[in-house]
Amino acid sequence: MPSLIDRMLGRTSKTGTGSKAKERLQFILIHDRINLPPERLEAMKAEILQVISKYVSVDSSNVDIALQNRERTPAIVAEIPFNKTVEGDDPDEDEPPKPPKSPLKDAEKKP
Amino acid sequence: MGVNGGAAGTRPQPPKKSATGAKVVTVTSGKGGVGKTTTAANIGVALARLDQRVVLIDADIGLRNLDIIMGLENRIVYDLVDVVEGRCKLRQAMIKHKQLPELYLIPAAQTRDKTAVSPADMVKIADQLRPEFDFILIDCPAGIERGFRNAVAPADEVLIVTNPEVSAVRDADRIIGLLEAEGKNAPHLILNRVKTEMIRKGEMLSPEDVTDILAIKLIGIVPEDESVVSASNSGTPLAFLDGSRAGTAYRNIALRLMGENVPFMQLEDNSGFLKRIQRLFGGQNG
Ligand SMILES: Nc1ncnc2c1ncn2[C@@H]1O[C@H](COP(=O)(O)OP(=O)(O)O)[C@@H](O)[C@H]1O
Ligand SMILES: [Mg+2]
Fold first, then answer.
1. What is the distance between the alpha carbons of residues B224 and B199, in angstroms, rounded to a whole number?
2. Of B44, B86, B177, B231, which sees the most CB atoms within 10 A?
3. Which domains are delineated in chain B?
4. Of B169, B203, B216, the CB nearest to A16
5. Can you give the pLDDT at residue A87?
6. Which residues of A touch B209 (CB under 8 A)?
7. Residue range B104-146, pLDDT digits in tens
8. Alpha-carbon dihedral of residues B6, B139, B151, B134, nearest 10 degrees?
9. B31 CB less than 6 Å from ligand 1?
10. Which residues of A touch B174 (CB under 8 A)?
């Protein structure tokens, strides 16, 4: 959808080098602002996923972890969907995580 | 705040002279060659033509050129470093403009060591000048080194000049980050050398694109204008003359610095761009 100014200027496509410049700048500046080059960011994302996968089974094909600028404040925003687990399914076959014993849960089971 | 129209020639209400002392405005950019010196000279002239008492300070030690753009290069006796090192009184380094008796220039030293001036020196000089002026305009050197620190140290307001180009916008972002880290007031943006025809074709970043990316408020859009160069050639900044598009843009920036809510001007007459741009930015007090 063309932006307001695009429509005002009769600019209908987003194919000019102007919008390319904007896209590239947004990418460059996000890394400039947090002083983290793209490859370090990728490493961080992988590590975040690794940690989460220790506890739940992640639907890795639909993971979206990205940096965002809210005004001038950068933030990392992650959408990490879990795999639906059928009742009794083990979420991770290779290394089943040992869920910490929850006293509350134990208490619920007692009666 | 009364809006008095952005068109050239309209005068606002009698300008209020500052009773509380000058506002210190620093013009900076990060990248060189984007138009800082040209912008500082023209805003200085525009403010003086609006009856403001203005002193321009060239903080680009070792690479002075504000004097040439202002046509005052033959009248330099003392410079900023002479003041700092006590070889002359502040008054003696101030060159009075002939046509605009309320406009002064303190030139940079041409040959001396860049570290001859410190941020504390700049604060001291600005404080000495404050009671006698409405505006102290500082032309900042390129880069983020000592000269930049000097120029922003006394600033009440920082104006960031950039061009609608990737490298200039990236450097502007770096400067904005540095100012944020120092706890300075949020700077304002001047987008210089805008070519409306290229924006229309989608081949140039628009003012909206750049403010989106940098997330700071716009205080001026200056079109690419050949007469900027010819004016600089002759040492008579464009803001001396009425009628040019860039000259009007500088005058509007001056008015906005004085607190007027001037709508953003038309970049091109026949496109209807005026009303549209006004609608976009009109409510915003620069
Ligand atoms: N709006 C403009 N239209 C056309 N040329 C411009 C404009 N603004 C600046 N220039 C030209 O750009 C060059 C660099 O400007 P200058 O003010 O010296 O930049 P800086 O001080 O940032 O290094 C000069 O040749 C100047 O005449
Ligand atoms: Mg310069």
1. 12
2. B44
3. 20-259+266-280 (3.40.50.300)
4. B203
5. 58
6. 5, 18-19, 21-22
7. 999 999 977 878 999 999 999 999 999 999 999 999 999 999 9
8. -50
9. no
10. 32
Distances (CA, A) of B157 to B46, B145, B162, B258: 17, 19, 16, 12
Angle value at C-alpha B164, between B196 and B190, nearest 5 degrees: 95
- pTM for this entry: 0.81
> DSSP states of B178-242 as a string?
HHHHTTPPPPEEEEEEE-HHHHHTT-S--HHHHHHHH--EEEEEEE--HHHHHHHHTT--GGGSS
Residue B245 CB–ligand 1 contact under 6 Å: no
Tokens matching residue A44: 């961080």
Higher pLDDT, B62 or B15: B62
* Cβ–Cβ gap B166/A3 under 8 Å: no
Cβ neighbours of B162 in A, within 8 Å: none
Residue in A closest to B171 by C-alpha: A29
Phi/psi for B233 (5° steps) reads -55, -40
When the pLDDT of each residue in chain B is averaged and rounded to a whole number, the result is: 89
Which residue did the predictor score with more confidence, B251 or A87?
B251
A83/A97 Cα distance (integer angstroms)? 15
Evaluate if residue B274 carries a pLDDT over 80.
no
Ligand 1 pocket: which of B31, B34, B38 to mutate (most atoms <8 Å of CB)?
A: B38
**Does residue A2 or residue B223 have the better pLDDT?**
B223
Q: In 3D, which of B237, B194, B188 has the Cα closest to residue B217?
A: B188
User: Counting atoms of ligand 1 from 1, which one is nearest the CA of B224?
Assistant: 3
CB nearest A72 (choices: B169, B205, B215): B215
- For residue A66, the model assigns a pLDDT of 87
